[in-house]
Structure prediction request, 533 residues.
Amino acid sequence: MDHQALYRQFRPDTFSQLAGQDAIVTALKNQIENGRTAHAYLFCGTRGTGKTTTARLLSRAVNCLNPNSGEPCNECEACLAMKEGTSIDVVEIDAASNTSVDNIRQIREEIAYPPMYLKKKVYIIDEVHMLSGGAFNALLKTLEEPPEYAMFILATTEYHKVPATILSRCQRYDFKRISGAEISTYLKFVCNESGAKFEDDAISSIAYAADGSMRDGLSILEKCLSSTNDVLSQEIVARVLGTVDDRDLFKLSTALAEKNTADAISVCEKAIAEGRDPILLTVYLMEHFRCLMVASLVKNPSDILQMNSERTKNFTLQSQKFTLNQIITILKSLTNVYKSQKESPNPKMMLEIGLAAISSHGQKQVSSIPVIQETPYVPTVPKPVEVPKPVAPEQKAEEIIEEDSPEPPEVVVDEKHLSLSEVTDKWGEICDYLIREKKVSLCGNLRLCRPVAESEDTLLLIFRPENRINHDLVEKPTNKADLQEAIWQYIGIKPKIHCCYTNETPAQAKQVMPKADIDALESEFGDFIKFED
Prediction:
């Protein structure tokens, strides 16, 4: 006997064997038991959720000679004929390859004749959304008023492409994606029936990769079983699917938690050397941290993560090594790494830079990885207050104050109001703020100047003559306004800004802001890695 694929070999023979569609099964069985089936059904849902299988079971149940509580007996002559596909009264049509009006006209001609052997003549039209506009129009009248012995079952993965005139003539049922737990249960049943040995983690990985499709799960299982004559392990599943082993992901995230850059790069190199795609590795690492986030937020995360209790426990334990803000920060950073990989000729290097940046930046923080915050609150700038001119020591104060002059109000100073002379101490933080505000170009130009406080309200930006372009760009009013806003955030002053030139030596004109390693990474590779202190 020729080999038969698992998804065909283990196709459900009864409604009770259908996984994940309990509401639909209950409704159809009640209709069959009460003899109140509709003349037209529309089954909608993603691939592998049981639409075609349900259509076949329904056609078998309405024609079964000995039905049992709405279930086909699978033993009578009618059930056996339909199961073997030899019944001429049950017609399956692939609309993807039969899209024309002529195909539908043929159905209209055939439906005029009653069934030869069964109670009902059933037409199952798969991927019905592929029919042409003319074919849909030809189907309308027949679909609305078919003979009593006729039944139409339409199936589609894209119901929004089906005309409203067709939708209104059908009973619509939406097939939901099958949960990972239900797929895992069925895959274990298949393994037990096939005599295959397996590890629970391996089945969980297959169920997760199936992404809600039972057919995909069975196909992946068959592929993995053919790769071993021994116990099916998670390592085998990862190798067959080209995914990343959970153990490597846990090692990598542990290295990031411990701020161990060397270990993080080593695990990354090992996974890539084993044939893992660097972009795919980033995606799986993002999904890993997503699981850590769910495990840290939800009391019982197994339902959401769709994995067994042991694997869920591992995520829960590791999530305790991070704060929620740390996990969110790493997720956002990995998202930026992923974007840069799509545009880079060397995705592996982008991932290594990202991992190094996350770990290295974390080493600056004694207690935690930096947290991405919302845009800092900008307090209202105090209105300028006119202060009396300074009085010479020998001049009496009462001589310059008119009798009707009110007392000058007190100058309200913000708590963070510092002297403008301290701008050089905060220059690095000011540039970091501009990077976070996506003012990378302005920050790059400011790196070529030396800030000097000329007075309490005037800041000089000194450029060398060869940096005229940078000088002119900073001179733009919008760039000056952005710089004033950044200075306000850290000094509490919005000074006047003047740009000028100097003939200082390169050593004298060297930028005063210290360059940390992470700043060099951001400068060289743009703003795809973003952190906030």
Observations:
- The mean pLDDT is 79.
- The domain at 420-525 is CATH 3.30.300 (GMP Synthetase; Chain A, domain 3).
- Residues 278-297 form the longest helix (20 residues).
